[in-house]
Here is the input.
Amino acid sequence: MGNYSWLLPVQASSFAARIDLGLWIIHAAMILIFVLWTIFFAYLLVAYRQRDGHKAERIHIDHWKSLAPDAAVLFFELSVVALYVIPTWSSLKMSLPDEKDSIVVNIVAEQFNWNVHYPGPDGKFGKRSAALIDFSNPLGIDPTDPAGADDFVTVNDMHFPVGKPVLARLSSKDVIHSFFIPAFRIKQDAVPGMVVPLWFEPTLEGDYEVTCAQLCGVGHAIMRADVKVQSRTDYDRWFASMAPVKKAGPSGATEEW
Ligand SMILES: [Cu+2]
Here is the structure.
């Protein structure tokens, strides 16, 4: 895929550039420190090399002065935490977009798939029950709940419109997984027994990759999904085409998704 090359993946969400800034700050600082230390070591090797008329001697070191480089690094790190990390974390993680203005989905991880539960045209999620889970109903949506009648579930295939926040409630059916879309710079653990909210806003139409970032079993490496960011029109067309085709079985249960 053209979205991935030697450097960072394409920036396809509203906060991708901000996350990348942190990566660049840290890398630039590490390169600077590496270069300065290398020059310093090279200087010591030459200045204190073995040669006639010189012999090793114990010299007095001012301990406070010798701590100056460490103090500079510590000052830099605390500055990054205070000026970049805390403000970024609080603005991206401590508040969520309004449900009214967002695409709201439930994302349920399992060995080794990503299930996405869309609420259907009524915008309401039907009740789910673990007892109702089977191959045709991977999330156990309760067919007797009217709110769930138009819900649909996709497996390893998610679609979102460009320029609108996506609010996802992330959970897991079995073990800990981690929802990771490199192009959006979003990564969040899916923990069994917890529903963890996350959000992102896609800013670039295209096809991107979702992977699992937490070793979760033998199929971890193939636990991936496609995320398609579309224009609003294309998204609406896709959404309308996904309305569940219902056939009442003997139990009245929805048989096809
Ligand atoms: Cu996984």
User: Anything to note?
Assistant: Confidence is low (pLDDT under 50) at residues 245-257. Helices lie at 16-47, 63-66, 68-93, 232-241. The pocket of copper (II) ion is lined by residues 109, 177, 212, 214, 216, 220, 223 (CB under 6 Å).
